Structure formats: C-alpha cells, structure tokens
C-alpha cells in the first residue's frame, strides 16, 4: 500500500495542502491524474467547486484532478483511476454516500492493489476500521459505520488537547475517546493537526510536526514522536 | 406535557443539578418517586453509581429515585412510573439502548400522557425529533437516529460559541449545525449551558441565564432571550 491519512488538509494560516506538498510529490510519484472524492462536503461549496480547489493545488505538482461526482459509472471510474484523494467535510455524509453508491469496498480494493491514496480529515477517518471516532455531527444516518480498514486502528483527526481554562461541561476529546474504548477494543490514533499516518507496503508510521497521542484499552494514553512505527 | 430539557446537569463550579433545583420542585410537584434512566453513561461510573448520584440530589427535594437498569420488566417500570429523569453521557449509546430495549416509544407515550420528564444533555437530545444534532462521538451504531419528538425541533446541548483565538481547523459548532441544515429541514435550538427548554401543556419556552441561538433553513442564526416562546 501507498497511503497518507492526514489530520487536516490545511494548517492554520497556510494554503490548502501546502504543508503536505513534498510528501504528495512522493506519494503520487509517476502518476499524472487522480480522482478526487468530494462527497464529505455538505454545503458551503459544491462538489464542483471543491474539486476545483483540489485541482488548483495539484496543478502545482503536475497532476490532473477529476471529480468522482462527474462520472456516470463511478465504480468503473475508481477501477480505471491511477490514484485517489478524499477531502474532508462531514464523515457521516461521506460514509453514507460511499456505502449507498457501493464504493467503499471497490475503493478499498483499488488502494490495497497499490494505487496511492490521500485522505484528509473525513477522508482519513474512512481509512480506519470504522468511523466511530469521528468528531463530526451525525447529520445523516449511514447504513453502516464500517470503513475501509486500510490500517488496523481508528483515527481521530484534528486531535485537540483539552483546555483547562474553559468553563464548559461538554466532554473533552480524551474523555470521548476513552468512552469509545469502553465499547470497542480498537486502538485510536489521536492525530494532531500537522501530523499524518504514512503506510508504505506493510510499514505504518506516524509523521509530522507534533507528538501523536495513542489510546488503547487497559493503558493510559501515551504519546509517540514523529517517525514512530505503529 | 410537563417537561424540562436542559443543556447540562451541572454548571461549572456548581453541584449536580443545583442550578435547576427550584425548577425541579415545580416540575415534580406532587410526585414522590421517579425513574432514572442511566443508559447514556458509557464508563467512568456504573449505572448504579450514576443512579446514586441522582438519588442523592433528589433526596434534598424529597423524591425517591429508582434506576431503570434494576427492573427486569423495563416497559412495565416505565408504565408504572410517576415521572422520569434521563441523565447525560453519550447520546449514541442512550439511543441505541432505548431502541434495542423498545423503550423509546413507551417513554414518549408516558411523557405525552402528562408524566413529568427531565432530560440533561443526551437526555435532552432524545426529547428532540432526532439525535442528528448531538455533539457526541458515534462510539456505537444505533438502529435509528429517531428520538421522541416531545418538541417540534432538535436540540444542540452545551452550545458553544466559536473561539476566534484558537489555531485549529476543526469545524465550529455553528458550522456543524449549518451543515445539518443542508441535509434536514428541522429547526435547531443551540442551548447554552445554564439554559433549558420548558414545555407545560402545549406551551414551549426557553429559560435560563443565557441567550439562546436558533438555527433555521434559509435564515441567519438568531438569538432569543430567556422566556421566549418557541
């Protein structure tokens, strides 16, 4: 496999995908066109405008981008593609759409065959075992929470440390993930913005500028440095 | 109907349910025992310990509390009860449990017959039309997101204004609720901590110390004062 699952597409104050540019040149080495999967986007911008945003970035590394929403036969489009990028948005909407269009399995098979894949945020959640550690609001009801399982764990993108100064009784991110572990025996990678999961063949590492927080049943959460094998 | 749907059980720095005490004396006027529904609680404390916490508070207003988890025949327990209180926790777990035990409809019918109901946080989400505006993590997969519809809108508990100082690209609460409105034509009440919905017979008002933010399709979000009829 040859994949990147990133916490976010955009670092604060930076341009779209800018911080990942050197990595993406390596990920898509030898490829001149990818399919963009815009289905996480619930509003604000259309699938077409969202695709244009990806297209503009990828033009700077000489890769053409086609939006999956434009293809009549989406399964054939995935089977014929050289590589993929799934953008962020709402994970419930993304997973519902992929299941309803019968695309989750075909996308997984194509990625497992070695085609490069980039996911950001919701697009990274679907690389995990299931979407039960998304931060998103359940604005639609997917037929299943199961995802592609490209990695043997779940991802929590945009991982955020709690702010002890806040006078608010909503649960912290850490509490939410610990609650997940009371119901599921699945490791969770709390991926801070600036970090990503890199899988090359069978080797999985965590990369980026921040420490990464890992949650497992029966252990205190612990942090690992960039470059650590997962 | 005679219900309170509160944003939170506990204000920052206060004791459990303390800020609602005068309201709860009115809500449960003439009642000496209620059923506590602890099923939102995924961990940390057991259903029994969670019930004890409610029991300790309600002892101060001379109301006995029995935990629903202790009853063999839970439908019969609900049908025989004088009133109800559903505590907070994880809404996915609460809704899954209520649907699987076939309790959502029987609870709704009992409340609609006039028995007093208090919900806090997840317990308030289930008073709305569906749970699609919860803030919780989808740690389990419920058979449906439908809730009791005691009020003709959805609730977003622990409503939190965005903090422009935060250097983080996760969605704000306002963005999430606006995304909900791209997929659903249901009014959403953003209930800040300190506020609650009060329904007496057919009259619904919002109460408490804060302004309340309301989101509707095709309108800019707007704020209403305590006492406003919804």
From TrEMBL, chains A, B:
Keyword terms, alphabetized: Hydrolase, Protease, Serine protease
Residues spanning the signal sequence: none
Gene Ontology BP, a term: proteolysis
Taxonomy, superkingdom: Bacteria
Any one GO MF annotation of this record: serine-type peptidase activity
Entries under SUPFAM superfamilies matching the protein: Class I glutamine amidotransferase-like
Similarity comment: Belongs to the peptidase S51 family.
Name of protein: Dipeptidase E
């Amino acid at each position: 496999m040859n994949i990147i699952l990133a916490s976010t597409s955009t670092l604060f104050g930076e341009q779209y995908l800018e911080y990942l540019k050197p990595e993406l040149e390596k990920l898509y080495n030898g490829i001149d066109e990818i399919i963009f999967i815009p289905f996480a986007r619930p509003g604000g911008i259309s699938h077409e405008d969202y695709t244009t945003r990806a297209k503009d970035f990828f033009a700077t590394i000489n890769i053409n981008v086609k939006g999956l929403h434009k293809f009549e036969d989406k399964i054939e489009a995935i089977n014929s593609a050289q590589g993929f990028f799934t953008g962020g948005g709402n994970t419930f909407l993304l997973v519902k759409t992929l299941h309803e269009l019968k695309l989750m399995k075909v996308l997984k098979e194509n990625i497992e065959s070695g085609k490069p894949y980039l996911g950001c945020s919701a697009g990274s959640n679907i690389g995990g075992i299931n979407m039960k550690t998304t931060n998103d609001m359940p604005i639609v009801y997917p037929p299943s929470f199961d995802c592609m399982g490209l990695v043997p764990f779940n991802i929590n993108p945009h991982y955020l440390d709690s702010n002890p100064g806040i006078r608010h009784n909503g649960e912290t991110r850490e509490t939410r993930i610990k609650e997940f572990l009371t119901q599921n025996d699945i490791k969770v990678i709390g991926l801070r913005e600036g970090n990503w999961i890199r899988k090359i063949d069978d080797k999985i590492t965590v990369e980026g500028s921040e420490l990464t927080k890992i949650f497992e049943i029966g252990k205190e959460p612990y942090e690992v440095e960039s470059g650590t094998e997962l």
